[in-house]
């Protein structure tokens, strides 16, 4: 009987497994993504949204035991109030209904507006308020909500969802009245202030800006006024005693900018433009209000501003943490246009100059930013003295100790912009500025790497990229220390002809006593004054990397009185976890570790409860709840239960040796129903080093540029992703030497169909593919997305997305040539597939879009027309107006369908689609896609 029972159980299990479905493109819309997540301040609730198929979102709120408290369709932008008693979220119209309205040519302003949802945990009730464009709640106090109405005529379809106490405010205008002042961008909108306990509401009309203080119970707003009741101006509401102060009175055309409180709410700053004309140079004025005063005081205007400067409306106003100072911006005069000229009288010419610091294309892209550029200036609120800190000579600034310090660090990159075109290094000159006197003291020149101030502004510190050394500069003594000189705190695996990067820092301990610096594995405590150091972790012995986790968003330093939490990652096993470090005992312990990818936890504001995710290739990163011991974990979400119904896959590490004798690692992804006695088609997908992502979850989706691992393994493919290590000057050969023996080692295992192997990659991966197929006929078919095939022409090109020259990339970074074409002409030629296209015997699918800002589109054109000239089977997909990857959903769907049809035809013997046989003629673009499969 025992034998029979076991046999029956085995047969049932096999039958059940065999019934698992194979993923189709249509199934990708079933998968949910967790788009946002938060834990209530008291740690008792978790809120998150699920987005299914890149369409509608579904908001869920659960308690700490994963019990469902609330779910709502079409909801997002959720947040908790500070006392954790209320959850707020916005509700959108169904995506499909919006699509239909657009199909019916409904104007944008007539589309359904958002609804605000207010859920009360005590009463377990949900209130919905229609027609809301934005809402805000205080960050560190309770009781109030402010929301802005989109207009005064809400969509009638949702009128049942409008609260009774709002119908009076929002519905009466349905009746025809005499024309009056209308809400809108010019006049402002109606702002409703709601008391969350009493549910009493007050409507503030024609509001243009509003903000709560972070800690003090105050609301500030500006309004264009209601002639019958409210005067135009700026107001402060004290919600502790329910009093209102009009701190500024102006006409209804005054424009207000950068309305901002100090943390306590005792001080308010804003900028006002009182000029109602269309003058190009706006006469902005800076105002400051202090609690106890009836009016805001004018601080600076166009007449009192420093000569050659004006008050900037674009730079944020910030009070120092101790509220003794206000930081604002001074801008250079605007460049005035002659508005009397018509287009026919204006010459449109670009003048590019060989020795100007920034390339013209960079200037063009940064034009809007440059027009808003301003220089940090400080107002001493006790003396009303104004000190300009940043200048034309030193335009960049780092303010110390949250604005409290009397020292600021200023810098400029201007002298080194030109050479950065080919070095790729942004060097800077640095100076210290006294925020009281404005005295500027230069301290460093040509520093190849960034410098910033320590939390308490006792030191300036940074990483010297050329010396590969961390340095500190004592502000009071001027003493400079090379903290890690002759020690390896730089990238040990750097394989580019550039200076290695650093591993970063964990931060500073209290009162700037020590800086915690990372090497490849460990965390070191370094004395910034002497350079003396001690190792806190012991990761190098086991090849485990430790990194500090900041759980408090407002943390400015690492408190040695507390226990610290680190993430851990083992380079050999790829396992991750969490590690607890007791600072006083100088001892740590692993508290969680395993074959998963663990996320950075999010901790509640008022407790030590956290939410985090755990993932693997087979396990979706669902939300989990725990405390900082991580002993008891509760799975909160179950985003994709349907995964169990599909044939999935497994991921494992494999090792081999490159043709250069280097030990290498890669990922092999197998179908869930893998049988080692069978032979499988295989696609090799790679970039540089990817094996550290062994435990990444690959949910089905319409990706931007690469094959979806779960989709292809479900359909019976193997996927191999090899790590690549490079030799300077020979990137193509390096890729060949690493990849080919890896593929061969898998063929030798017996389960790879050696006659049906494909290659797929994008950008840098695509370049390597183009090179490899000039050297071997092993691959049956390849897809190469946005490839560089001609390093000579590409070297002289522009990265249109940034405006930067591509020279630095070829000389020092990813392309790894190591010099100019006139220094190493043969390297450029030998590494360029364009010169060996005649040796390609592999069918090639190219995807390259005409708005690509990373790799010039003409590279894909050169590749395709060369193959076409040689009569090689090749296809080019160009998604009009798309950048480096197709971003629009319809284009990503199209690319995924065509790529899978392409590989299925070559690697699995599936029927050939029409588009591969006859293309899609220009007359049929957007009409006939050619997806239909032909009968062979």
TrEMBL record:
Residues 174-184 have a biased composition (Basic residues). Pfam families: Peptidase_S9. Residues 739-908 form the Peptidase S9 prolyl oligopeptidase catalytic domain. Its EC number is 3.4.-.-. Residues 158-184 are annotated as: Disordered. Keywords: Hydrolase. Residues 158-169 have a biased composition (Basic and acidic residues). GO terms for molecular function: hydrolase activity. It is an enzyme of class 3 (hydrolase). This is Alpha/beta hydrolase family protein. It comes from Formosa undariae.
């Amino acid at each position: 009987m025992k034998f029979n029972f076991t046999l029956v159980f085995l047969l049932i299990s096999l039958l059940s497994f065999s019934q698992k479905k194979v993923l189709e493109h249509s199934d990708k819309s079933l998968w949910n993504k967790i788009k946002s997540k938060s834990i209530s301040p008291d740690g008792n609730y978790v809120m998150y949204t699920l987005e299914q198929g890149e369409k509608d979102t579904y908001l869920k709120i659960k308690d700490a035991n994963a019990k469902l408290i609330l779910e709502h369709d079409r909801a997002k932008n959720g947040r908790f109030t500070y006392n954790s008693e209320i959850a707020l979220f916005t509700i959108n119209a169904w995506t499909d209904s919006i699509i239909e309205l657009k199909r019916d040519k409904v104007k944008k302003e007539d589309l359904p507006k958002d609804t605000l949802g207010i859920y009360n945990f005590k009463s377990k009730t949900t209130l919905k308020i229609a027609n809301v464009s934005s809402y805000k709640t205080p960050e560190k106090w309770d009781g109030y909500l402010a929301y802005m109405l989109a207009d005064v005529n809400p969509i009638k379809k949702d009128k049942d969802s409008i609260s009774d106490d709002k119908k009076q405010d929002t519905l009466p205008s349905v009746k025809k009245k005499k024309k009056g002042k209308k809400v809108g961008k010019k006049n402002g909108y109606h702002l409703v202030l709601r008391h969350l306990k009493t549910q009493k509401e007050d409507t503030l009309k024609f509001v243009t800006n509003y903000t709560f203080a972070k800690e003090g119970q105050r609301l500030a707003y500006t309004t264009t006024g209601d002639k019958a009741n409210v005067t135009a101006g700026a107001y402060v509401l004290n919600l502790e005693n329910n009093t209102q102060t009009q701190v500024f009175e102006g006409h209804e055309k005054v424009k207000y900018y950068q309305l901002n409180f100090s943390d306590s709410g005792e001080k308010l700053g804003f900028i006002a433009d009182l000029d109602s004309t269309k003058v190009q140079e706006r006469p902005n004025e800076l105002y400051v209000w202090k609690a106890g005063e009836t009016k805001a005081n004018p601080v600076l205007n166009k007449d009192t501003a420093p000569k050659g400067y004006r008050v900037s409306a674009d730079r944020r106003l910030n009070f120092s943490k101790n509220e003794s100072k206000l930081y604002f911006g001074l801008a250079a005069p605007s460049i005035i246009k002659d508005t009397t000229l018509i287009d026919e009288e204006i010459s449109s010419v670009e003048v590019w100059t060989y020795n100007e610091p920034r390339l013209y294309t960079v200037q063009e892209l940064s034009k809007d930013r440059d027009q808003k550029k301003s220089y940090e200036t400080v107002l001493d609120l006790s003396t009303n003295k104004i000190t300009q800190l940043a200048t034309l000579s030193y335009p960049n600034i780092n303010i110390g100790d949250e604005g409290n310090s009397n020292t600021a660090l200023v810098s400029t990159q201007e002298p080194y912009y030109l050479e950065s075109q080919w070095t790729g290094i942004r060097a800077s000159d640095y100076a210290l500025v006294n925020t009281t006197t404005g005295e500027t003291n230069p301290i460093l020149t040509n520093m190849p790497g960034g410098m910033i101030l320590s939390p308490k502004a006792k030191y300036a510190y940074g990483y010297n990229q050329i010396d590969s050394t961390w340095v500190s500069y004592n502000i009071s003594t001027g003493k400079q220390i090379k903290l890690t000189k002759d020690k390896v705190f730089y990238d040990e695996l750097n394989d580019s002809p550039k200076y290695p990067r650093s591993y970063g820092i964990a931060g500073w301990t209290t009162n700037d006593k020590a800086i915690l610096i990372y090497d490849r594995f460990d965390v070191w405590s370094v004395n910034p004054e002497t350079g003396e150091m001690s190792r806190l972790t012991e990761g190098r012995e086991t090849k485990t990397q430790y990194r500090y986790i900041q759980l408090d968003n407002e943390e400015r330093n690492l408190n040695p009185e507390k226990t610290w939490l680190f993430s851990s990652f083992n380079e050999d096993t790829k396992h991750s976890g969490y590690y607890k470090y007791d600072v006083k005992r100088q001892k740590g312990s692993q508290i969680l570790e395993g074959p998963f990818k663990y996320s950075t936890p999010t901790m509640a504001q008022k407790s030590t409860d956290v939410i985090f995710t755990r993932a693997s290739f087979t396990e979706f990163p669902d939300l989990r709840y725990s405390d900082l011991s991580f002993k008891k974990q509760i799975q909160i979400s179950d985003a994709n239960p349907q995964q169990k119904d599909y044939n999935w896959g497994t991921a494992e590490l494999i090792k081999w040796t490159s043709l250069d004798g280097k030990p290498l690692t890669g990922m092999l992804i197998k179908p869930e129903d893998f049988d080692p006695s069978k032979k499988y088609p295989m696609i090799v997908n790679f970039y540089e080093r990817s094996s550290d992502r062994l435990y990444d979850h690959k949910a089905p989706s319409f990706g931007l540029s690469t094959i979806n691992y779960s989709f292809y393994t479900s359909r019976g493919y193997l996927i191999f992703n090899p790590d690549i290590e490079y030799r300077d000057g020979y990137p193509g050969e390096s890729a060949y030497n690493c990849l080919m023996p890896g593929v061969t080692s898998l063929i030798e295992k017996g389960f790879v169909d050696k006659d049906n192997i494909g290659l797929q990659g994008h950008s840098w991966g695509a370049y390597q593919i183009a090179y490899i197929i000039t050297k071997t006929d092993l691959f049956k078919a390849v897809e190469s997305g946005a490839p560089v095939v001609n390093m000579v022409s590409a070297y002289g090109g522009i990265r249109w997305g940034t405006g930067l020259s591509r020279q630095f990339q070829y000389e020092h970074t990813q392309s790894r040539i190591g010099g100019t074409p006139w220094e190493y002409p043969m390297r450029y030629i030998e590494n360029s597939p364009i010169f060996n296209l005649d040796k390609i015997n592999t069918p090639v699918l190219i995807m390259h879009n005409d708005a690509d800002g990373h790799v010039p589109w003409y590279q894909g054109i050169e590749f395709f027309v060369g193959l076409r000239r040689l009569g090689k089977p090749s296809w080019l997909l160009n998604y009009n107006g798309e950048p480096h990857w197709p971003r629009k959903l319809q284009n990503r769907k199209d690319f995924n369908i065509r790529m899978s049809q392409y590989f299925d035809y070559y690697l699995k013997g599936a029927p050939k689609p029409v588009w591969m046989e006859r293309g899609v003629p220009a007359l049929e673009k957007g009409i006939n896609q050619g997806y239909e499969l032909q009968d062979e």
